[in-house]
Amino acid sequence: xxxxxxxxxxxxxxxxxxxxxxxxxxxxxxxxxxxxxxxxxxxxxxxxxxxxxxxxxxxxxxxxxxxxxxxxxxxxxxxxxxxxxxxxxxxxxxxxxxxxxxxxxxxxxxxxxxxxxxxxxxxxxxxxxxxxxxxxxxxxxxxxxxxxxxxxxxxxxxxxxxxxxxxxxxxxxxxxxxxxxxxxxxxxxxxxxxxxxxxxxxxxxxxxxxxxxxxxxxxxxxxxxxxxxxxxxxxxxxxxxxxxxxxxxxxxxxxxxxxxxxxxxxxxxxxxxxxxxxxxxxxxxxxxxxxxxxxxxxxxxxxxxxxxxxxxxxxxxxxxxxxxxxxxxxxxxxxxxxxxxxxxxxxxxxxxxxxxxxxxxxxxxxxxxxxxxxxxxxxxxxxxxxxxxxxxxxxxxxxxxxxxxxxxxxxxxxxxxxxxxxxxxxxxxxxxxxxxxxxxxxxxxxxxxxxxxxxxxxxxxxxxxxxxxxxxxxxxxxxxxxxxxxxxxxxxxxxxxxxxxxxxxxxxxxxxxxxxxxxxxxxxxxxxxxxxxxxxxxxxxxxxxxxxxxxxxxxxxxxxxxxxxxxxxxxxxxxxxxxxxxxxxxxxxxxxxxxxxxxxxxxxxxxxxxxxxxxxxxxxxxxxxxxxxxxxxxxxxxxxxxxxxxxxxxxxxxxxxxxxxxxxxxxxxxxxxxxxxxxxxxxxxxxxxxxxxxxxxxxxxxxxxxxxxxxxxxxxxxxxxxxxxxxxxxxxxxxxxxxxxxxxxxxxxxxxxxxxxxxxxxxxxxxxxxxxxxxxxxxxxxxxxxxxxxxxxxxxxxxxxxxxxxxxxxxxxxxxxxxxxxxxxxxxxxx
Amino acid sequence: xxxxxxxxxxxxxxxxxxxxxxxxxxxxxxxxxxxxxxxxxxxxxxxxxxxxxxxxxxxxxxxxxxxxxxxxxxxxxxxxxxxxxxxxxxxxxxxxxxxxxxxxxxxxxxxxxxxxxxxxxxxxxxxxxxxxxxxxxxxxxxxxxxxxxxxxxxxxxxxxxxxxxxxxxxxxxxxxxxxxxxxxxxxxxxxxxxxxxxxxxxxxxxxxxxxxxxxxxxxxxxxxxxxxxxxxxxxxxxxxxxxxxxxxxxxxxxxxxxxxxxxxxxxxxxxxxxxxxxxxxxx
Lengths: 831, 283
Ligand SMILES: Cc1cc2nc3c(=O)[nH]c(=O)nc-3n(C[C@H](O)[C@H](O)[C@H](O)COP(=O)(O)OP(=O)(O)OC[C@H]3O[C@@H](n4cnc5c(N)ncnc54)[C@H](O)[C@@H]3O)c2cc1C
What we know:
The complex is a heterodimer of chains A (831) and B (283).
Chain A: H1 21-26, E1 41-47, E2 53-59, H2 61-64, E3 69-74, H3 75-82, E4 107-108, E5 114-120, H4 123-130, E6 134-139, H5 146-150, E7 164-171, H6 172-175, H7 181-191, E8 193-204, E9 213-217, E10 223-227, H8 232-243, E11 250-253, H9 269-281, E12 285-288, H10 291-297, E13 301-312, E14 318-330, H11 340-343, E15 357-365, H12 379-397, H13 401-408, E16 417-418, E17 424-425, H14 430-441, H15 443-455, E18 460-470, H16 478-483, E19 492-498, E20 504-508, H17 517-529, E21 536-539, H18 557-583, E22 591-594, E23 597-600, E24 606-608, H19 609-618, E25 632-636, E26 645-655, E27 660-671, H20 678-697, E28 729-732, H21 750-767, H22 781-788, H23 811-818, H24 823-829
Parallel strand pairs in A: 1-12, 10-11, 14-15, 20-21, 27-28
Antiparallel strand pairs in A: 1-5, 2-4, 2-6, 3-5, 7-15, 8-13, 9-10, 9-12, 13-14, 16-17, 18-26, 19-20, 19-25, 22-23, 23-24, 26-27
Chain B: E1 7-9, H1 14-23, E2 27-30, H2 36-41, E3 49-52, E4 62-65, E5 68-72, H3 77-82, H4 84-89, H5 91-98, H6 103-106, H7 111-117, H8 125-130, E6 134-139, E7 142-147, H9 148-151, E8 152-154, E9 157-158, E10 165-172, E11 178-184, E12 194-203, E13 206-215, E14 222-223, H10 225-231, H11 238-245, H12 262-280
The complex binds flavin-adenine dinucleotide.
């Protein structure tokens, strides 16, 4: 008997518990920092306390003399070898960018930049010695404020002569995708509605759970590098390109990785330095960042000013949208820094039928940590802008915010739809998702309660926030990336290996770091090949095993990597057919494959896939001219993005006496196409919601006016915990995508994208009777309180976050220690 | 993050701990380590010796001492939270500990450690002050008692000498008083932006006695004496309490930081005081 005869219901769609969770939750796994190699040395970084300064001298003798210190290297010591860290997305031909050394050589451009590395036999000794590296700085004026930097008042990189890195425009009239936005605006000014707003996307920190860590072993024929990264294939490529090691001599392994949210989509200075040092000393080296280092110098996200102009007719039909962005690059261009705002360029029009659209973006340098991908990357910014604006339009017209959306959105019968931004949305049904969300939310009931509270002048007011969204994910069709001047393609690779015992090894080029690929991919392969879920092993994250891949980000793993996997699995079946025909003494044309069994049409003869695998392994009795293997590969380049969408509804209670906010209810109905595993999808949505809500209410990276990150620990950078969440109503409609076999769409970023505007719209909705039309994010109680009382003469809730964080530790302790010391080197190396 | 090297001693008696403290040139006491360890790990301080009080049994636990209850300095927040003596006689402390940090911190951090640390945003100072707690302090020369008024000197500064150890805190019993601790935060695990500790004795609908302490409204915990006085003899109604609470910020000097400026904090103090008193009065 073969397993296939008892083949159960399809795995796709089942709530399988995640295979990987037992080891991840119990810690019975290996994170990069757990790796210990014989003779391994440890690195500690000396970092600049200044946002902008010239390095005039570095004294390393004292540090070198410390016990068990092997060496101390400065930028000058590795200037030749270290090259310049890569920017893979020069968005314009004349994009300006400073060189980006891993260790600063003569100038530092943000607080936290590495100026020296100490190598010792233990991590503690390296850390102790790092405190003794004496760096002399000559301070330079820092460019900190984004708007001021855009005016070149102070230069972040004097040699560039400007802070403007690039200007990028999309214009629907030029592109032939729509009309002239300026004409639309003029018309609206004369005889319609014109909404002009400026919104701030605050700076955020990805704040993944596992700090980044890298180990490099140079002792074998190949350099082996373990890194807590989302992108082992990228890291391998850049070790080759930046450091001049032949690619074939580099193996990169991403073992279990504890979260990324885009924050580990990078080739980091620390990775480069660890490789440089290990090669130089010929010994394995490890570097693990501290939490403080992670928050200060791991790349940040968002940080934009958005100037928006929306034109509409008097009845609220949109006629044009103009977007002017200032995007803060921080001090350098990391891997995709410059392209992040451009990922939003195609999404500001959202789900609406704008006849004219223009997007302008100026990328600006400042002396702050560089920004780069952070969950949603460009699309949350766009969704925030349009969903805030549509709500403003509704207020202006005097209709319900859902009604204004319905008037303007693409109707389900209008798909596929070519948008004003030049994308083709394949499928969607905004009406269905919205209808379901309204029902689950109890929309009308909550609106009635809101009115009652308003009438009663209740000190606790209720606000209802609406956000729809769509996003382009499943990054990405290679030709599109090429047209946007991105350096790589967007395909993904998979292979399926049939083992002699009937087990299946699946190799994917995607690189999971918490998503649950092992489970979802097992479900797909189980259905495709008719093998038990448990018999599928998913391998990833090692460039020697998964030799081809473009890794995990942009909600691409399932829509792109999953499709590659489907294609590879289907090839296995095709390869097995002639073998089955041979063994069953039938014609190939008569072989039919169902649920793991190759049967002969019209007979009860057949063989299970495991039997074919064993027969192929033995190859004793094989058809002439057929290779004895079932193993198959596929590389899939998506034909289009995938366009999940959804409607999110949020009710917030605002305590008008304190400005305190309490989330009352949150319902989202997301259409993510075919759901492979509802449990994983729910996890992604819940986590995404919390992350997006956190942008609306809690998180902000704040610098003081000398360029020091003051929200530099979790005391002040307020990442929510489970205690700050409510039970979210998570539901779905399903309109399968038609651009991949399984009908899936991305879900990794959806929750994050829609929740931020839903929450802020709810806050503003509650306050509108007080004359409030905006509260700057994060919507802190102080800002809300001040917004409510703005009419009494207080400020408006739009003021930037200022002031240092309140200390919770004895500052006198610090003073004690630094008394009599040069405080510079204390600061310079203490974090 | 790795602290600088230090020597570690874990004496089992108070005498040995005091001895070690006076012998070491540069020593730090560690209780629950919830505040000290971050300091060491971020290298804000690097003492030569760390003296752990964790093995000194006599410093742990809550006991009845006639007209007062006595909380040992090394009693963990989680044990204070569930202690029936505390609940009955110093309910405002129970209410404050309930919202202090998170469960992990409450199972490590100690009552004495939190008070000795004297973070003006710490949740225990205001209740201790409001209840007229007495701090029992041991040194090599013997033991002295410091009134709460005198214990909190400044930011992170108490009346404790470098060579002294806080052994226990005596709190006069206030059985039958209503109490509430109103803490205002943005996320659950945060130190208070402002908090108000209120304990009141209500007789036949009238406030007979009131104690009100303020957290994070200055460099030390503060008593809102003007509010206390205004409350006495008033009915426990919203209107009366609102009027009394209006003076909550009098004489305070709150900080301005990421979570709010001083003016906003002064405003919060009045709102939170009203709410705390009304809740304490059961109104
Ligand atoms: C994540 C987090 C959140 C927190 N949130 C809050 C909060 O919301 N509210 C709040 O009030 N606190 C909060 N805390 C602090 C917590 O209450 C600590 O437990 C407390 O401040 C210190 O207590 P400890 O026993 O850990 O003392 P330790 O950290 O061991 O010591 C603190 C200081 O007191 C000294 N010391 C300790 N015991 C004695 C003694 N018996 N005699 C003399 N000196 C002594 C030490 O030398 C040290 O200087 C938080 C802490 C953390 C880590």
